[in-house]
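Pasting as-is:
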Amino acid sequence: MDKATQGQFQITTDGFGPYRDAIGFTLGGRTDFAQLVKIYGEMQDEHRYSPAKVLGAKADWQHGRPDRDRVCTSHVERQNLTIRMQMRRLTRLTNGFSKKWENLKAAYALHFAYYNFCRIHSSIRCTPAMEAGITKSVWSLQDLLTA
């Protein structure tokens, strides 16, 4: 029986410590979880804005049985970039900056719902919800807001 049949999926995060508890608490044993920890060199100039040179990375297995060949953070890093570019609420010093947690949570929910149900992705030529078999058609904004 493959992992998809069992509801098991693989997730990889960077080495940020709180991810271990967050993944374990929210997803329990439904994941194969690894962390990819980058190893940085010495900072040459402490006044530079960019981080030190990356010397390497090591995979730390947290739980489950993650596939060593699929341990990477590129998907979550791309998702974070997409969120930062499309949600101006995450940018300080703009008139869209969220001052209340409730507004930020609502903006995140709307972003993810639109991203997964309304937006056709060029790489899969449909929405992620259609690709996953959750829906058979692209949702309009009216469909999304009345669901």
